[in-house]
Amino acid sequence: MVLYYSIVFGLLVFEMTLFGMMVFPFPKKWKRAVLIKIDESGIIRRNQYIINIVGFFVFILFIDSVNRMIRATEEVNTANMADPRTDTQLHVKKFYSQRNMYLTGFTLFLSLIINRTFAILMDLFYAEEELERLGQSAPVQHKDVKFYQESNEKQDKEISELLKELDDLKRKDRDFELLKKQAKNQSAEYNRLADEHNDLEKTREGRTDEIKKDL
């Protein structure tokens, strides 16, 4: 195997090991702590340039292996198979080109799978941490909500009592105005009756004086 394909094979083994560690059912707390530590350390972001170069290098090898496989297949289909040695060499060449294509193709595909799996796991772990923080702060918020609800209920009760007292005061004010009006009417009636009584008294006294004069 050529040196660069040996390097690609080593990269494929590393990717398989890394992917196995991400999907293997380790204790969730340990896995989350390790992956979050790796993400927060910035190792991947600092080495992103090198990772892109390696990925581009593997992609070039994949394109080259595909071209070699196509040429080897055409040679096998068009060659004269009378010589067994020629037939064996062509099939070996085709086999190596297919092997290199599968090797580079699986390496590229697995790198994409690892990248996407890592992103999904990090989103999941950060969401779980946020949910745990919200769960810890929920009792305090619940107490605050309960306090405000009780305060609102108390205020509503006080408002209802004040409205009731206001209605009572309005009713008493109406009753007072009614009594005041009745008292005014009674006073006017009393004054009228007093005037009539005085007039009658004066009339009777006048008649009595006339009777005495006649006698």
From TrEMBL:
Chain ranges of the BAP29/BAP31 transmembrane domain: 1-133
Residue ranges, compositional bias (Basic and acidic residues): 192-215
Region called Disordered, residue ranges: 187-215
Domain Bap31/Bap29 cytoplasmic coiled-coil, residue spans: 157-214
Short name of one Pfam family: Bap31
Annotated keywords: Coiled coil, Endoplasmic reticulum, ER-Golgi transport, Membrane, Protein transport, Transmembrane, Transmembrane helix, Transport
Transmembrane segments: 6-26, 47-63, 101-126
Annotated membrane topology: Multi-pass membrane protein
Locations listed in the record: Endoplasmic reticulum membrane
InterPro entries in alphabetical order: BAP29/BAP31, BAP29/BAP31_N, Bap31/Bap29_C
Endoplasmic reticulum in keyword set: yes
Predominant place of localization: endoplasmic reticulum
Family: Belongs to the BCAP29/BCAP31 family.
Function: May play a role in anterograde transport of membrane proteins from the endoplasmic reticulum to the Golgi.
Protein known as: Endoplasmic reticulum transmembrane protein
Organism: Basidiobolus ranarum
